[in-house]
Design goal:
Blueprint: E1 6-10, H1 17-25, E2 31-34, H2 45-50, E3 58-61, E4 64-67, H3 69-79, H4 94-121, H5 127-149, H6 163-174, H7 186-195, H8 199-208
Parallel strand pairs: 1-2
Antiparallel strand pairs: 1-3, 3-4
Helix pairs in contact: 1-3, 1-6, 1-8, 4-5, 4-6, 5-7
The protein binds glutathione.
Length: about 220
């Protein structure tokens, strides 16, 4: 295999977590660099050269910086087909995989950004209304994902772990302090309990120093 090199800029539990998890799950060698977003390190000039929006993740792929968690998951799945984290272009589940990657990154992730950052990204005086709308969007996404899993499906797409599950798990974790966390939905709670036992999930939590989710 051609040599591939990766450097992941991450913050614990942030949008970088799914990419970090994927690199571990795919057993791909990489270097991890902590960006202390609590201390504002994402706005350092050197970091802004890699990520002009001042966000994590950034993944340096063979020397060039790339951004956007969902795009990075899809890129890594393409570059490492042996990880089997996406259905092949010919597979019948391919359309569902594309749909779910876009749904999570296009609908749920921006609502999460609004919920967490309404006062910083927008007018603090209007933040309560933005947060309330974001909460409705987030809860309706949990209902949609819960219905998609139902009693029968172990994974969100097909019969195999995929990047969709990594992204969904990260997003569900972000809801842990909301008035209705994702685990309030019965099928999502069972799904989280299955996924949390994956050795790569345990390992990414260990490396990022994350504890307490999902609750025992
Ligand atoms: N759409 C981006 C969102 C990235 C994002 O919002 N990251 C947050 C952490 S979850 C961040 O870097 N926050 C620091 C800030 O905005 O100052 C992605 O999915 O990669």
């Amino acid at each position: 295999m051609q040599h591939m090199s990766y450097v992941l800029y991450y913050a614990p539990g942030a949008a970088s977590m799914a990419v970090h998890w994927m690199l571990i799950e795919a057993a791909v060698p990489f270097e991890a660099v902590l960006v202390d977003i609590e201390a504002g390190a994402q706005r350092d000039q050197n970091y802004l050269r890699l990520n002009p929006e001042g966000r994590v993740p950034t993944l340096i792929v063979d020397g060039l910086p790339h951004r956007e968690s969902a795009a990075l998951l899809m890129l890594l799945a393409e570059r490492h087909p042996e990880s089997m984290l996406m259905p092949s272009p010919q597979a019948s589940e391919r359309a569902d995989w594309l749909e779910m990657m876009l749904y999570l990154s296009n609908t749920l992730l921006p609502a999460m950004r609004d919920w967490f950052y309404a006062a910083e990204d927008g007018d603090p005086g209007g933040a309560a209304a933005v947060t309330a709308l974001a909460q409705r969007r987030i809860e309706s996404a949990w209902s949609a994902l819960d219905a998609r899993l139902g009693d029968k499906n172990l994974w969100l797409v097909g019969n195999h772990l995929s990047t969709v599950d990594l992204l969904a798990m990260m997003l569900m974790r972000w809801s842990r302090n909301m008035s209705r966390p994702a685990t309030d939905w019965a099928h999502l709670a069972a799904y989280v309990n299955r996924l949390k036992t994956l050795p790569s999930f345990v390992e990414v939590n260990r490396r990022e120093g994350l504890k307490g989710w999902p609750p025992e």
